[in-house]
Amino acid sequence: MDLLPLRYFQVVARYEHISRAAEELRVAQPSVSRVIARLEHELGTPLFDRQGRRVHLNAYGRIFLRHVERALRELDDARTALRDARASGLGTVAVAAETLLTLTGVLATFRRARPGTEVRLYQSTADEMERQLRAGEVDLCLASQPLNGPSLTGVELLHEEVLLAVPQDHRLAGRASVAVPELADEPFITTRPGNWQRTLLDRLFAAEGLSPVVTCESNEPGASQDLISAGLGVGLIPAMSRLLGTHAPVDWVRIDAPACHRTLTLVRRADAYLSTAARAFLDHTTGRPFAAHWTSP
What are the sequence ranges of the domains in the chain? Predict the structure, then answer.
């Protein structure tokens, strides 16, 4: 069986929409429809229920998809293994993280240990990281919130408290702690939905039956502290930023709420081939306490 129809089927099954699948595949919509029709004819059974341009994966399609995804993963892993075997042994590792600043220390020590290894970086939300791992676009993800998937496995690197950062002339400056209801009217500097800071902020307020006042949201969590220092609002910042002291000065207040913390986890696909370079990065990152990488890069 030609592999192209299987890859077309996989994308159509993901979107359940011919036009969107054609857009990702960068081919004309009629071409996608013809390929799927030929595949169904070859298999002798329909894989989708059709409603105009919308298609819905039926019971036969769901069975077929499970096997197709497994087969295509194996083929992609085989190609990676061959490239790895042909390479000089240095290779390439692809890593995704919600904020790339978290990786600066470990990257510095890794490059000193393996100067010829190429590292490709992606800034991604949790949902994007799950997709990238499933698709084999990245080898490893540094996640600040749980990644879901039956084949995903992770190693916890760091568990740390998350603090409230406020401008140094703020009414809460100098306080030891603050309860979430006291922050109901405070303007928050945070990230867009999907990033760990926003997820934690929404969860803390929802537990009190409240919604935060968001005055600024961005794609880069590392920018939050500088914006807070400028007096634009308050925000949730991990304790490592307080210890590093690499951003503009703010005042730190503990939040009187359970589970006000984040856990950094290095996640990979358990059923995927891990190249020599990716294995080296995994071993390097998990081989000593993660804090050692960023306290003295």
Answer: 3-83, 88-157+263-295, 158-261
Q: Which CATH number fits domain 3-83: 3.20.20.10, 3.40.120.10, 2.40.160.60, 1.10.10.10?
A: 1.10.10.10
Residues facing 163 on adjacent strands: 237
Strands (E), the chain: 48-51, 54-57, 92-97, 118-123, 140-143, 152-166, 177-178, 187-191, 213-218, 235-238, 251-255, 261-269
Is a pLDDT exceeding 80 seen at residue 123?
Answer: yes
Q: Give CA–CA dist 232/189, Å, rounded.
A: 7
Contact 48, 60 (CB under 8 A): no
Per DSSP, the residues of 79-114 read HHHHHHHHS-S--EEEEEES-GGGGHHHHHHHHHH-
Bridge partners (DSSP) listed for residue 251: 166
Q: Which pLDDT does position 222 carry in this prediction?
A: 76
Place of tokens 């020590």: 109
Q: List the CATH code of the domain at 88-157+263-295.
A: 3.40.190.10
Residues in Cβ contact with 184 at an 8 Å cutoff, skipping those fewer than 6 apart = 210, 213
Evaluate if residue 40 carries a pLDDT over 90.
yes
The answer to whether 127 touches 192, Cβ cutoff 8 Å, is no
132 compared with 116, residue with greater pLDDT: 132
pLDDT value at residue 35? 94
